[in-house]
Amino acid sequence: MADIDAICGAAREAALLLAPMGADERNRALEAMAVAIESDADAILAANAADTEAAEKEVAAGEMSQPILERLVLTEAKIADMVRGVRAVAALPDPLGRVSYAVLMDEGLRLRRVACPLGVIAAIFESRPDALVQIASLCVKSGNAAVLKGGREALGTNRALADTLRRALAGSGGVPADAVQLVEAREDIHALLSREDSIDLIIPRGGNEFVSYIKEHSHIPVLGHAAGICHIYVDKAAGLDMAVNLTVDSKTQYVAVCNAVETLLVHRDAAREFLPRAAEALRAKGVELRGCERTREIIADAVPASEADWETEYLDLILSVRVVDDLDEAIRHINRHGSRHTEAIVTADESAAESFLARVDAASVMWNASTRFADGYRFGLGAEVGIATDKIHARGPVGLEGLVIYKYLLTGEGHTVSEYEGEGARPFLHRPLPLGGHGA
Amino acid sequence: MADIDAICGAAREAALLLAPMGADERNRALEAMAVAIESDADAILAANAADTEAAEKEVAAGEMSQPILERLVLTEAKIADMVRGVRAVAALPDPLGRVSYAVLMDEGLRLRRVACPLGVIAAIFESRPDALVQIASLCVKSGNAAVLKGGREALGTNRALADTLRRALAGSGGVPADAVQLVEAREDIHALLSREDSIDLIIPRGGNEFVSYIKEHSHIPVLGHAAGICHIYVDKAAGLDMAVNLTVDSKTQYVAVCNAVETLLVHRDAAREFLPRAAEALRAKGVELRGCERTREIIADAVPASEADWETEYLDLILSVRVVDDLDEAIRHINRHGSRHTEAIVTADESAAESFLARVDAASVMWNASTRFADGYRFGLGAEVGIATDKIHARGPVGLEGLVIYKYLLTGEGHTVSEYEGEGARPFLHRPLPLGGHGA
Fold this sequence. Notes:
The structure is a homodimer.
Chain A: H1 4-18, H2 23-39, H3 41-60, H4 66-72, H5 76-91, E1 98-106, E2 109-117, E3 120-125, H6 130-141, E4 145-149, H7 155-172, E5 180-183, H8 187-193, E6 201-205, H9 208-216, E7 230-234, H10 240-252, E8 261-267, H11 268-284, E9 288-291, H12 293-298, E10 303-304, E11 318-324, H13 327-337, E12 342-346, H14 350-359, E13 364-369, E14 386-388, E15 396-398, E16 404-415, E17 431-432, E18 436-438
Parallel strand pairs in A: 3-4, 3-6, 4-5, 7-8, 7-12, 8-11, 9-10, 9-11, 12-13
Antiparallel strand pairs in A: 1-2, 1-17, 1-18, 2-16, 14-15
Helix pairs in contact in A: 2-5, 2-7, 3-7, 5-6, 10-11
């Protein structure tokens, strides 16, 4: 077992050194990381070949699934993607230093609220080794230290990548090597989860059980999502072609992802015309339908849906279908069974849409658009840390803004609070000062 | 024991009804609350008189402290303050609906990120019954439902206040009465702490042990602070009069609060001239000094400080004093022993000040100003939910912005993700759209 105390202590020290550094220094470190990955490509690929060989044996022995093996494999093209990814992060606008609140409290007493890094981010992710590079880049860009724990099947690859990144940082003359730390053993996760003193945020990337475990076992804030139980509601005023297209896209464009739809809700007035057409299009894509009673009156051969179906994230070619009386029932169903991730309405009725957008409690709510758009890249955020379904700090697809917070900086000329209290107290001016720009 | 399931369920229902309501409806509810407190003043004062009588007996029996009794007592003037407070919250700008990000993803595909309520806020506070009214007002203003647990000594008063507020809401014709819920028994706190399904944020207001207990026993996000171990650092380039004034103000202007200074750090080059003058001024206010060895070479009769002193929040007329070699040692001491709450430097050296502001890891950092300014009202935030020392969501003095989050709203014309993937994929435009205003 690694010395988690030493790793966390070094990460916190590195974070304190990194916090006051300028964008130039952080971007220089990112460029050094990109160059180092390019020049160490052979060593990284060799480490990955060894990981892959071991994984193939496990797959052959039935001890690992084929998709995990596929996510593990690196190629020259994937290395080139990693390098491009690091440079794309470097090219993003600086998330630090922006002034989001500023007032002249009194003559000579100036208050600014300035964006600053969180400190130490612990990221725990599964097989894909490119996640390591992506998260390390986003952390360096936002002035945070990263403690990284990858999947055991990618251990050799992750070691090679972390070595490369740490050597690149050491040589960049600014950002310290300890800003990137690798944690290797599964047993160390538990120790990480209790380090409130040195870890400011945990980002878990993985399945429902994995993320739930992390949330259950730590008092450190967690940014992410466990389930993605997303719905599409076809209103009575929906255009039927559009409704079929959006249902098919939201369900089948990529089934194994959190923003794919798991339940279709249909207004009873639209059901008789819409459901047969939707069923035909969905079945052409291989989708199994599980319907409520009213659905099965129309689609007789749909599998009967149980209560459990409304709470299940299939991540598979299965769709539960429920006929509802009206918009209110659809919204109630979603707010009760949804996971606050991504929800959609299809309707030509603007007031129904406005009501849905305002009343559905979810991170992303779509009107006449696919749930699959809920993604940091598609939303134009440049890079995605993950998708969060809690309501604190950052919600939905989270970009660099999820890795920063702010501090208040007050500069005075010897101002004491006594002058502003009691008899003859001076009043505060609270005169707004210009925002934006850099305030450090 | 109350039915916490029913209370939390009703609060969540109320939050869902409240979320889409406009500012007019929420402000009308606040005005109804203000009017109701005014007209129920006699009943509230009568309930408070009974609480006070019981508390006086406990004080006489040595079972309650005098300050708790003092915080409990309501008067007509305090009722008038409550009413003014509710109206002041109503007059604040609407925290909801603001658009903080907006892009045209493609023709006809418009994305907005719109401020919305968190949902259900659980506030757990000690004796002051005015906290109930203040937190309920801030929650209604920000579209959240409030689950309120006050101190046992104020139970009768809190019941009267909650009844008044709930009746006012019921009569206001908009915001539902269940948006304000009272939890009465101490045993119910534990049940509240495990209701991740219906509570979105816990705001604990009380001492260090109380807040630490809440944080330790819940996986729900907590907004607040446990300790306030604040420092003032007197640099070698400090003006000595200013340094003495700021030290006295930061330590003694009000000792029992989180933003009062607990440790004085002094540059060794300033110590010999500054410390005797500071000691004289502090002792004139009754402050006991506990010094490191180098301090005691100058202030011979200071009590020797132990390691524990650097980690102690006295909340009393006691100040630990340490002589440091330079700015770096001062910053290291603060980042190691501080509670990330409020820190101050006194210096005429701008570059030393900039370094301190950038490198000290705390929610509020002051240059030539008292630590006692760290307060929502003084910072011009209008109303304060509390002071937060974690780094997630909201930090430092937190106003209404700590009670809101955002949701992404995407409106399309039938756009599917398939069009933007694979061969012949359409590119995204990601053209920025105007921000601000109201986006609901």
